[in-house]
Amino acid sequence: MKVSLDLLRSFLAVHRSGSVTGAAELLGLAQPTVTAQLRALEEAVGRPLFDRLPRGVTPTAAGDELARRVADPLDRLAAVLADDTATPYPRTVFLGGPAEFLAERLLPALAGLVGDGLELRVTAGLPEQLLDDLVAGRLDVAVTSVRPRRRGVAVEPLYDEEFVLVAAPDWADRLPDPVTPQALRDVPLVAYAEEAPILRRYWRTVFDTRLTRTPSLVVPDLRAVRAAVAAGAGASVLPTYLCRDELASGAVRALLAPPVPPLNTLFLAVRPGLGGRREVQAVRRTLRAAADGW
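The chain above was modelled as a monomer; its predicted structure follows.
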């Protein structure tokens, strides 16, 4: 049985993206072309490779088996064809992540690669949108606070954010030691979202109680939350990497030092089939090494 590489590439793109539409975007082909290629491959192997759903497709057992057999050889071939030994970083890397983490950690860590010739395009976003963009081929690498559970996405833990309850000295001086939820009732709360997920999680894990108050100030950027807290707007919960300098200078104070502070893992995810590209490997290797010192 002879099957062209184009049919196998389209099949693998459909398997990884979970839809013909997503595969067409990933490959830069028209959707009818991918549909025809998939139909031709199924005729060649003599069995269905996907079950069609109202939205997208799901692989059959035969589809999963074929993907397992062809994924690595096709990925290796794609890496060879894309490789240009005349430059250390042959292709642009498209990177996505949380805006604050991009600005404070990811971009400084990657500055040396850019200086050495890496071309980098960066997108800030929320976890689900970043993962959608990764699977659709709009991103090559994403850092996300939600563990990806998409088919074919290579994922590894990158960094554990540690959270701290902070306020400006004027507010800190008015509070007892140790701070209690009751003592915080008269302190305005600053949050990055109306639902105040970070604050609510802190109250639940550290105080073992629900936060029932609404924030006094909501601003959709943790760097702005940091600035507002330092200016005396009230209290908030921030990742320690974002307020380390302010804590060291005394611009803000930690109101509590729980034995086990709340943690949140950030994950490094790579688009299917790109793990072997030299420039993607360089980004992953550099971020992993930098994370050891964060």
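Residues 241 and 290 are 13 Å apart (CA to CA).
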